[in-house]
Amino acid sequence: MSTRKRPLEGVKVIELANFIAAATTGRFLADLGADVIKVESSKGDPLRYTAPTEGRPLDMYENTTWELENANKRCISINMKDPAGKEAFFKLLEGADVMITNWRVQALQRAGLDYETLKERFPSLVYGICTGYGEYGPDKDLPGFDFTAFFARAGYLESLRQKTDVPMNMVPGIGDHNVGINLAAGILAALYHAKLTGEGEKVETSLFESAIFNMGMMVQAAQYPDYGVKYPINIREANNPLNAAWKTKDERFVQTCMPDYNTYFKRFTTALGLDEMAADENLYPVQKLAENGLGVTIYDRIMARFGERNYDEWAKVLVDADIPFSKAQSWEEILEDKQAWANDCFYKMKYPNGERVLVKQPVKYHEMGPTPYNRGPFIGEHGAEVLKEIGYSDDEIKAMIESGTLYIWEDKEK
After folding, report:
1. Average pLDDT value for residue range 86-113
2. Cβ(353)–Cβ(365) under 8 Å?
């Protein structure tokens, strides 16, 4: 096992954020050794209570979503509206290298926690913020979640659906995780600069901006209205009929991806036993499809062919032909996926009621070795020890608890 020091040991991060995106950033930094202190109210982050909407029991002692976003952090629960609580927060910032927030800009300004205010007092601080729609423009103050600012506003729902159908079903966290990693990348660059020069920085991204970047290829292509089929489409009418999901005899879907039609067409159709298609000069190169209007015909013939065999049979054919493909898996299948386990995607966490499989962050380090996976903190669990570290006495901490300025979690399981 590696004894290499984790690269962010000694870095202090204050996380003033709720839900997923900013928390993902904090988790990323915590995995690398940063001391990430999450600041919550006495009620805690709303993410602590989302279990029923995810199809799992509500249990603070077995809160798998909380672990995913908040493992390896510490937590302090202070009333930021109380002057004593605000003072404690500023004392936390005095020793901090990074602050992460997803509060709306108006709320930050009212609380005196906006970047322009804080940089005067903490000039070396790296200030990371993620929002729904960005900090500028007419919609900068709208509430934003990945369902709305990421999937809907930036083109996923309107484009990635069958033309005659409703938008795809969504699940929470996808856009948030994307944004959180983007923010982490920016913070690390700014932190490197701050350590070299003593100069802080503001790093900003949003759900909306990140999603536009993700959609960049097609957003740019939309400037050429006279070429190709415009989204939303029915998949039978796609510009490239080889990038589709095919239904097998045993009713599984096989997604293939052949971005360059001309490179793959003959190899693919030959592997499927559709030799007459491979030899048809009207179907190759891809430029002829639009001229002849035969893309739908190709799609229908390949779909019919896949319906003649089960998935396992087709998987061998496609592997042998070196065709990029994958079975459309369920979440239950992912938990059993040998490839995922071989690449250390999961961690087995022990809970009072047994063991659960948790998903790890997707970046690994060869020399440093695996990062730790400590459960996410309870509300205010580390409040007393954090305040002692910044100079508060036992009597001062007791007074803050009694006044309601500081909330300390009582572990009822002990």
Report:
1. 96
2. no
Catalytically active residues are: 176
- CA separation for the pair 262, 287 (Å, rounded): 9
Would strands 74-78 and 346-351 be described as parallel, antiparallel, or unpaired? unpaired
**CA–CA separation, 279 vs 108, rounded Å?**
65
Average pLDDT over residues 179-201: 98
At residue 312, the pLDDT reads 98
| Residue found under tokens 């005095």 | 94
Q: Average pLDDT in the 116-145 region?
A: 95
Per-residue pLDDT reduced to its tens digit, 335-347: 999 999 999 999 9
Distances (CA, A) of 313 to 310, 324, 380: 6, 16, 55
Helix axes 174-197, 207-214, angle to 10 degrees: 100
Nearest to 100 by CA among 165, 20, 194, 193: 20
- Quick check: 28 and 184 in contact, CB under 8 A? yes
Q: Each residue of 16-52: pLDDT tens digit? A: 999 999 999 999 999 999 999 999 999 999 999 999 9
Torsion 158-161-162-167 (CA) sign: negative
Q: How far apart are CA 377 and CA 75, in angstroms?
A: 6
Tokens read off for 212: 């536009």
pLDDT in tens, 353-368: 999 999 999 999 999 9
